[in-house]
Write a structure and sequence with these properties.
The chain has about 240 residues and is of the alpha+beta class. It is built from 9 helices and 7 strands, in the order αβαβαααααβαββαββ. The chain is globular, with a radius of gyration of 19 Å.
């Protein structure tokens, strides 16, 4: 089925796609990014523990930069490190989320797949064959992302006022920067201008970047009608 989907995407769009196949959402998602840009990775249930052991903790769902830094201070840098810790110790240090991380590190994820949820976001991201360094290279990579995001949003009839820039560093640290407008952005040129602005606030990444992503999102709260035309947020921890 995954091979067929990849072929259908190539035939319809001319684009490559990566696919991950496994026994739960966590493993399938991580597998889909394992051999980009045109990969297909199968993780069998008996392979789950070893697959997770080789990954940095930053790759595990729910562990953002701040949480990862706390784990690193405890000597926990990989899935294997997390697997070997006493779950009671993790709960005492991090609360119930520590037990979730321990289970995820073992490849256990019982979250249901929800294919029919109302769309709250639409995005695109790309993992580079070689890490990019410097504002010029990153801006050049953002332009086609903005054009493709605009195309997808137009095709889906999706309009949202919050734009999110996703940055994954070479060491797998993840950061997001977001802004909310008074109206949905119009066209690829405006999306690119806003993405470029986010790239420079507070400053472009200093080190190598392995992935960039752009997405449009609906808010998760009732917004204040007195909201300013532009609201900028500092990079936030996805964990």
């Amino acid at each position: 089925m995954a091979r067929l989907l990849k072929l259908e995407i190539r035939a319809a769009t001319g684009l490559t796609a990566s696919a991950g196949v496994s026994c739960n959402k966590l493993l399938a998602k991580l597998a889909s990014g394992h051999a980009k840009p045109d990969g297909l990775t199968l993780v069998r249930p008996q392979e789950a523990r070893n697959f997770m052991a080789a990954l940095p903790v930053e790759a595990i769902h729910g562990i953002g930069p701040k949480s990862a830094a706390r784990l690193h201070r405890l000597g926990i840098a990989t899935g294997a490190d997390l697997q070997q810790r006493d779950p009671a110790e993790l709960v005492a240090t991090f609360g119930r989320i520590g037990l979730l991380w321990w289970n995820l590190a073992h490849g256990r994820d019982d979250r249901p797949v929800e294919p029919d949820r109302p769309r709250r976001s639409l995005g695109i991201e790309t993992t580079f064959a070689r890490d990019l360094v410097g504002p010029a290279a990153l801006e050049a990579a953002l332009r086609p992302l903005a054009h493709e995001l605009d195309r997808r949003a137009h095709r889906a009839g999706f309009r949202a006022r919050t734009l999110v820039l996703k940055i994954k560093h070479a060491d797998f640290r993840l950061a997001t920067r977001s802004l909310t407008l008074a109206r949905p952005p119009e066209g690829p040129s405006e999306l690119f201008a806003l993405a470029r602005r986010l790239l420079h606030i507070p400053a472009p990444p200093a080190g190598p970047v392995r992935l960039l992503g752009l997405s449009l999102c609906l808010p998760n709260r009732v917004e204040d009608p007195r909201q300013l035309p532009l609201e900028l947020a500092e990079p936030r921890d996805q964990g």
